[in-house]
């Protein structure tokens, strides 16, 4: 490489100075490097990308869900023009009338299944690789809570179109909960808001589906990913590079030292 | 920082106790479904093996506890206090900062509770309070021909809309002597509640509906049907004309509704669960039980094996 011209240095300063400024006050750049430019074992494969795939599916659900929420109306009362329930009419409008609504709704609906399938594939990978063992037990446990919350998201989301399938599938689901030992009937009655599904049920499930459960799962995902970053990825069980062996201290390929100039300005370590 | 977290295998040695612990937990979970005794055995196993396991795992950490002189804070700087009285003044056991810490936490907890409790209450209580449904008036008795089922559907809550629609199958069994009422002749009805006792789907009569004879009496829709059995669209449950299960996953006979007759009109009462019906029509022997969630057995060995579902939650 040729030596840097004076101009090049100037440009670099202009770009990096604001980053340094932010990093000095927030450690955001250092944090991002810590999060992204990590050492991973040499012998990982596509199997280790299932977690990120699940996260991507979740992000798709969040984005499409937020936008669906701009058009969807969670009400079981009858829309006077269509003669059908407001919720169902709004889903019809999203699918048939609103530009690109069919696409976003389709992404959210199919994405829900993709998300659950990826959750299970990711979990299977972790199980088969024994990646839940010391010191990653808590990562596994947060994952279990994510799985349960994810399935609850699917359960509550399924009611929202308020058609016959949605309604009766939910009746069945609530009654299944009702047969649980001890608290079952109370749980069922809480979910239905009364002895049977009624007009409050839809609004309650919408609130659970788009506020309570996403909030909970986002928190859980945060902890999960923090733990993954902190503890690193594990080699496959057949790996020679076994857990615990010294890692070569060579400069990792991913970690470019230059993003923030080390030491000179405030951004250094 | 980098070495502290990375895969140093100071994992404890192998131990067999987790297997016992797992068996205990499995027993406990099975017991929740099957019976108290198995659950109790499982709980004991889980606790015992769990403790053994924890003891095993922590042996290294606990090690031999060395005898350590209790720390005393009284003499912070021996050089500075040689001239003082030999008995050091006792330190306050509850310092100012401890007090402030505790009171901050306590007050925050109190504020948190004051805010959270009503909110939680509002979330949960409306599901369980003020839920009375009106009793349904199915109209004059003449609308129910003898020996035939009529599909009667009505709204349980005025203004509740479609979601409060309830459906019952009503069959008039003719006049029978009522020994409880000095042997007077009284009309007898079989009233089956349409919700499947498997998991609550809407059971349908298996037969042609006479749409021409459809009537609407004060918002109650009455449609005669030629049916000697009832089927559930969800998982294929099949019931006979008395509501006994004939096929599929339902666990008891169809629920029935109590009824009374006021001023020549048929009035529906509460729904109850039915274990089994022998005989037919007015002469049927009905083993009745308090209403219970769909999917739960009310009689037989299963009701004993799975006794932990309480009957109806009240409104
Ligand atoms: C992992 C997360 C999620 C899963 C598994 C999930 C699942 C579902 C499912 C199965 C449906 C029914 C879809 C349909 O019938 O079209 C649905 C609908 C819906 N969801 Fe989600 N969802 C998730 C996240 C979210 C989030 C974060 C929001 C909003 C902030 C949201 C908002 C909605 C809305 C508004 C609907 C109704 C529209 C519709 O039914 O097409 N969802 N969701
Ligand atoms: S709900 Fe009727 S058979 Fe399952």
Average of per-residue pLDDT values of chain B: 84
Approximately what portion of the residues of chain A adopt beta-strand conformation? under 5%
Strand order across the largest sheet of chain B: 4-3-2-7-6
Order of helices and strands of chain B: HHHEEEEEEEEEEEEEH
Rg of chain A, Cα atoms, Å: 25 Å
The best one-word shape of chain A is: globular
> Which pair of protein chains has the largest interface, and what are the residue counts?
A-B, 40 and 36 residues
Q: What fold name stands as the CATH topology of the domain at 136-305 in chain B? A: Rieske Iron-sulfur Protein
Describe this structure in words.
The complex is a heterodimer of chains A (269) and B (315). Chain A has helices at 6-26, 28-36, 50-71, 86-97, 101-128, 137-159, 164-178, 184-192, 199-231. Chain A is mostly helical and 269 residues long. Chain A has a single domain (45-233), classed as Cytochrome Bc1 Complex, Chain C, CATH 1.20.810.10. The longest helix of chain A has 33 residues, at 199-231. Chain B has 315 residues and is an alpha+beta fold. Chain B is 25% helix and 27% strand. Chain B has a five-stranded antiparallel sheet, with no helix packed on it. In chain B, strands 1, 11, 12 and 13 form a four-stranded antiparallel sheet that branches. Chain B is elongated, with a radius of gyration of 34 Å. Chain B starts with 16 loop residues before the first helix and ends in a 10-residue tail after the last helix. Chain A binds chain B through residues 76-78, 85, 133-135, 168, 171-172, 174-176, 178-179, 181-182, 184-186, 188-190, 192-201, 230-232, 234, 243-244, 247, and chain B through 5-9, 11, 32-33, 124, 126-128, 131, 156-157, 160-164, 199-202, 234, 293-296, 306, 308-310, 312-313, 315. Bound molecules: protoporphyrin IX containing FE and FE2/S2 (inorganic) cluster.
